[in-house]
Design a protein that fits this description.
Low-confidence stretches: 1-22
Distance between the termini: 156 Å
InterPro entries: Bact_Sigma-Reg, GAF, GAF-like_dom_sf, PAS_4, PPM-type-like_dom_sf, PPM-type_phosphatase-like_dom
CATH topology of the largest domain: Phosphatase 2c, domain 1
Organism: Actinomadura macrotermitis
Strand order of the largest sheet: 8-7-6-11-10-9
Largest sheet: 6 strands, antiparallel
Protein name: GAF domain-containing protein
Number of helices: 19
Radius of gyration: 53 Å
Keywords: Hydrolase
CATH architecture of the largest domain: 4-Layer Sandwich
CATH superfamily of the largest domain: PPM-type phosphatase domain
GO molecular function: phosphatase activity
Length: about 725
């Protein structure tokens, strides 16, 4: 085989050997049993790195002793002696000595050289360097392993550390480092540097990006690779020369790690302990691993963002659940003060360890609620009056939410409070109170707590306003209703009197049921009535007042109950249209004591039939004719006269009792009324009769609120 048949030799790159995927062909002719170097191609000399010391005609073991030490001369001896060729694949060869030595791999062929007579006169050595191919294969395997780590979502520190070690494995003498950019891209933080001294990585941790900020800081700023072939003489390393010298670093090149959107993610750097300039293969390898690092960092940042989003969503759901639960708790009670105490209880410990609620009452700021984890803290908190001249005062004056952080802990005497939050409680834009959260001991007031407190205060203010309005409305209805009923029961001659009134629902509206008892001439004769006005509220109240006051005004002027009721009917027919046009049911009568007897004259106008209860429990319905009032000129009422003997009771009720319903929907009816009265103990007074009746109604309806007003009036004849 002629030397010219081999391709031209190529120069072997320094550092990583030949470029990944490329190969170099070498050729040498050796003669004689001493294997004297007869000739070789230039690639042979460049590959072995001994062009300056190899001379033709000298034994190979003399000019390249390192090859002899590795057994190559023994192979040549065998081929020369036997005349048989020899081949080997991926033979490992250490080329050069000392710090210049490098590892290489070759596919080698040893062919015997024959003379004309067939005798062996030497050996021809042909080789193809496979170092680049082997490196490419190793690089591909390591790259695959790193990508698998990224796909498995291995910790970023583990992936970057593994990548740095791969670089150092592929490039003996190299020291790899990865720095990670802050979110703003202005500083670089330590990522991985398995072979750099700890003091060095600590010193550059947090280095700022910018011109003349070392190789890494400058590369991050310029967004391109920066090379410092000789750190000691590089102006970009001003201020870091002593640090680099102490770490034994002589050269460095740094490549920025950029995301898919061009965002700076960090830097990838390779250091050497000798001054040197990177080769093309070095730049290619840096770009490759910078891309892998970018993928790992972006995957890590994406996972961080996903985790943060999940945590944020979870916190948002928890906050929403807290607010929904708090809204339910605040709406459970319609007492204004209790609502504000529940507000304080909801805040501790969910939002802060301590809480106060202050409100303005009669021009003064009063503390109405406190909450704390311990009794001691509650006492200390209660001992501090509202700071009307400071935060609470400003918030109540319309200043909005205020937050005070990092205040001296001794201002609150033993509570250790450092952070305060004060949120207004508003009603129609005006602050009527303030919610104050207090915390300390390393538990700062986060923005999330501020937002939650503001929303909770808004809901609590609405609940407190509703409770206050409910209380005001209930009190108004109670006061108006009291004005339509007897404030005190009068003492009747020879008779006991008992009355009962229970409003429908929660008592927020004025009912339509009413009763009245008032004296006539000489106080020996008394008028009594019980009635039911169609409807509820203010209109029903005016109609009730019209009926009662008309009866009281004419009763002493007219001869009997029928005429009084006729006058009431006329008044109802003539009332103004804005006072409503509903009808009225009524039982009206006169009670007189004559000697030892009680006589009763009454009329019924569309009302529930009166009952006469005997002392032995006998119940008699009194059927008096009469139509509803307020609908026609003549209601056609007919007087009914009866005598009450000792122990007998006249029982008058409204339809709220007879039409009361059980939980199953059944109606109490007349049968229930008669049955309840029949169960009255013998010789019961008026109060006992009424108690027995109302107890029976409650037992029938159960705990549910009644849907109609209930009224009853009992007159019982007394013994002498």
């Amino acid at each position: 085989m002629s030397v010219g048949a081999w391709p031209p030799a190529t120069r072997a790159d320094e550092g990583f050997g030949s470029s990944p995927g490329r190969s170099t062909a070498v050729f040498a002719l050796l003669s004689g049993p001493e294997h004297r170097l007869e000739t070789a191609n230039p690639a042979f000399f460049e590959t072995v790195g001994a062009a300056d010391r190899v001379r033709s005609g000298l034994p190979l073991a003399q000019v390249l002793p390192e090859l002899a030490e590795q057994g190559f001369v023994a192979v040549l001896d065998e081929v020369y002696r036997t005349g048989r060729p020899r081949t080997s694949r991926d033979s490992r060869v250490l080329l050069g000595r000392g710090r210049r030595a490098r590892e290489a791999f070759f596919d080698l062929t040893y062919e015997p050289r024959l003379d004309a007579a067939g005798g062996v006169v030497g050996v021809a050595v042909f080789g193809v360097e496979t170092t680049g191919i082997r490196h490419a294969q190793l690089l591909a395997a390591e790259q695959h392993a790193l990508l698998e780590q990224i796909a498995r979502q291995a910790p970023l520190e583990q992936t970057l550390d593994g990548m740095a070690r791969v670089i150092e494995k592929l490039s003996p003498g190299a020291l790899a480092s990865v720095l990670l950019a802050d979110a703003d891209g202005r500083h670089l933080r330590h990522g991985a540097a398995p072979s750099l001294p700890r003091f060095y990585t600590d010193a550059i941790d947090g280095i700022a990006t910018g011109e003349a900020a070392g190789a890494c800081g400058t590369a991050a700023h310029r967004r391109r690779t920066v090379v410092a072939a000789d750190i000691a003489a590089d102006p970009f390393w001003d201020g870091y020369h002593e640090l680099a010298a102490r770490a034994g670093l002589a050269s460095c090149w740094s490549t920025p790690i950029l995301g898919g959107d061009g965002r700076l993610l960090g830097t990838f750097a390779i250091y050497h302990r000798v001054a040197r300039t990177p080769q093309v293969s070095d730049f290619g390898l840096c770009d490759l691993f910078a891309g892998i690092a970018a993928l790992a960092i972006e995957r890590h940042l994406g996972e961080q963002a996903r985790t943060a989003a999940v945590a944020k969503e979870k916190a948002a759901r928890a906050d929403l659940a807290f607010l929904l639960g708090a809204g339910s708790v605040l709406a459970q009670n319609l007492d204004h003060t209790e609502t504000l105490q529940r507000l304080a209880d909801l805040c501790v410990p969910a939002l802060a360890p301590l809480c106060t609620v202050d409100v303005v009452e009669d021009g003064q700021v009063c503390r109405v609620a406190i909450a704390a984890a311990t009794v001691r803290e509650q006492r200390l908190l209660a001992a501090h009056p509202p700071d009307t001249g400071a935060m609470v005062g400003r918030v109540l004056a319309g200043g909005g939410t205020e937050v005070a952080r990092h205040a001296p802990a001794d201002l609150w005497g033993g509570l250790g409070i450092t952070d305060r939050l004060c949120v207004p409680l508003t009603d129609r834009g005006a602050a009527f109170g303030a919610l104050t959260l207090l915390t300390g001991g390393g538990r700062p007031l986060e923005d999330r707590v501020v937002s939650l407190a503001e929303e909770l205060a808004r809901r609590a203010a609405m609940a407190a306003r509703n409770a206050r309005q409910y209380a005001q409305r209930a009190q108004l209805a109670h006061d108006l209703q009291a004005g339509l009923l007897l404030p005190d029961l009068p003492a009747l001659p020879g008779a006991g009197l008992a009355t009962h009134y229970h409003p429908a629902g929660e008592g927020l509206e004025i009912g339509g049921d009413f009763y009245d008892v008032f004296p006539l001439a000489g106080r020996t004769c008394w008028a009594f009535m019980i009635g039911d006005v169609c409807g509820r509220g203010a209109v029903a109240a005016t109609t009730t007042a019209l009926v009662r006051h008309t009866a009281r005004a004419v009763a002493r002027l007219l001869p009997g109950p029928a005429e009084v009721v006729q006058a009431v009917n006329t008044a109802l027919l003539e009332r103004p249209g804005n006072l409503g046009g509903g009808f009225v049911t009524l039982v009206y009568g006169h009670l007189a004591r004559e000697d030892d007897r009680l006589t009763v004259e009454l009329v019924r106008a569309g009302h529930v039939l009166p009952r006469l209860l005997g002392p032995g429990g006998a119940v008699t319905q009194i059927d008096a004719e009469g139509a509803l009032l307020g609908l026609m000129d003549d209601p056609g009422v007919e007087p009914c006269r009866l005598e009450l003997r000792p122990g007998q009771s006249l029982v008058l009720v409204t339809d709220g009792i007879t039409e009361a319903r059980s939980a199953a929907g059944a109606m109490f009816n007349d049968e229930g009324l008669d049955g309840a009265l029949a169960a009255v103990p013998p010789n019961a007074d008026a109060a006992a009769v009424l108690d027995t009746l109302t107890a029976a109604v409650r037992a029938f309806t159960g705990p549910a609120a009644v849907d109609d007003d209930q009224a009853a009036l009992v007159l019982t004849a007394l013994s002498k």
